[in-house]
Write a structure and sequence with these properties.
Order of helices and strands: HHHEHEHEEHEHHHEE
Radius of gyration: 17 Å
Oligomer: single chain
Strand order of the largest sheet: 3-2-1-4-5-7-6
CATH class: Alpha Beta
Number of helices: 9
Bound molecules: S-adenosylmethionine
CATH topology: Rossmann fold
Number of strands: 7
Strand content: 15-25%
CATH superfamily: Vaccinia Virus protein VP39
CATH architecture: 3-Layer(aba) Sandwich
Length: 238
Amino acid sequence: MNGRQGWFDVWQAKGKRALAEGRSPGLRDLVALSGYDSPTSALDLNQYDRQLRHIVDSLAIGPDDHVYEVGCGAGALLWSLQNLCAGVGGSDYAPALVEIAAMVLDTDDLAVLEAREVPVEPRYDVVVSNGVFVYFPDAEYAWDVTERMAAKARRAVGIFDVNDLATREEHRAVRGAAYGHNAVRTEIGQLYLDRAGFVELAGRLGMTCVIEDSVMTGSANARFRYNVLMFHTGGRPR
Ligand SMILES: C[S@@+](CC[C@H](N)C(=O)[O-])C[C@H]1O[C@@H](n2cnc3c(N)ncnc32)[C@H](O)[C@@H]1O
């Protein structure tokens, strides 16, 4: 199965099942729709809250900021962020998930889009992507999206939960053991990226770059993932 189409089908099917249930989603449902109920990333809401706090603090998101998310899914992260900032916008390639996001988010800027097609305008103070880069087809796609996010951001970019190329084989073994017979998911595969690639790209774009280990310690995936923070001149929190 083609990796890109395979993951698209997984996410779109999740959204369709939720829409068929026909009830209005709460945060727990939104978090499950983001995949944080799988064998390798089962999280309780406290863990998700820790991730939210980390995103807000590391990017110094404040009440005057407008925040955009690439790959926003059903809107779990933006739903929490919209109460902490001036406004949110987002996009995702799965139409069923965007339909749910439209029910729970207070924004006019929601669209069904491939991450690589996200328009640079309108620009936002902060542009984030949480748990999305692992589903991209290849590194070239990931660098293109990063560059686009940097152009869309006035101040800062945050890319959270990237698979670390340095620990790929160990992570694959953990995932294989966790999924066992569920061949489809392991077959589709995930993308692993070199930390140095982000540092080099940020340098080329004239941005500063900080890379940190994942804070989602309740997830089996966390040990193998990192977060990327990139700041335009003057955009770095003190
Ligand atoms: C783990 S979920 C995270 C959802 C959301 N970012 C959050 O934190 O709640 C991954 C999301 O990435 C989206 N996605 C994966 N590949 C994508 C792509 N190439 N373009 C746009 N969205 C993509 C999926 O549809 C899914 O909603």
